[in-house]
Known about the structure:
Blueprint: H1 2-36, H2 47-50, E1 66-72, H3 76-79, H4 92-97, E2 106-108, E3 114-117, E4 121-124, H5 130-141, E5 151-156, E6 160-165, E7 171-174, H6 182-188, E8 201-206, E9 212-217, E10 237-240, H7 244-249, H8 255-277
Amino acid sequence: MVLYLSYIYIGIGMRKVALFAVLAIFLMSCSETKRVTYLQKVESLPVEVLQQKSLLADPRIVPGDLLSISVGSDSPESVSIFNKLSSSSGTTENAMTSSSVSDNSTYLVDNKGIIDFPIIGKLNVGGMTRTEAEEFIKSKIYPQYVKKEPTVTIRVENFKIAVLGEVKAPSIYNVPNERVSVLEAVAMAGDLQLTGRRDNVLLIRFKGDGSKEVARINLNDPNLLFSPYFYLQQNDILYVEPNKSKARTAYTVPPMLTLSLSILSTLLGITNIIVTLTR
């Protein structure tokens, strides 16, 4: 009789455990939904907050950049010596009147931030913003070499970012228009895996002076829209860490623990069968 009551007690305890397990799974699923949603409750932000402009930083020139530099003027022939010519260009006149710059008309920024510019020679543009470099080159050309103030246009031809970790397509991505937000970068990488942490994305940024900056980004936070890290800069690296569930699956269970759990599961199964048969 005592043994029978013990079996019943064990059976009731197992049912309670199962009930608690189901409840825990339900609560965990609700919690996971909150963790995977981007910009949570962004619609609740006040209108005046949403109307604020996000900070879009002008790209800073760093070693390794490939710069396309075009010098224009009302008198194209006067600035022709400052423009590299493509071997595929039809004529010098056509090349000078075109506002576009060929792919091979680029200047490599060396490790000291220096480029070798026609006629003028070595120019240190490392650490400057694109706008600052345009004004700097213009000041070297006008009025020393030309009578009319020219226009100088610089583009970073190899503007790229890297997205690594728990994303569907980790890779290095080129950004032709030199403008990309962190959400656009996530989309380019095929979105985050469910096993990726959205609240603690690591950003590594390489500055023009060679130093580095590290920041953490919370993709769940609606205030991300106004963060100085919302727009990425060239050579930025995003790393998405695995969440706890992914970390647990990566853990190798020792053989002895596996055997112990197997024995325990078998004993619980036998106990449940005995309780059922003795009813």
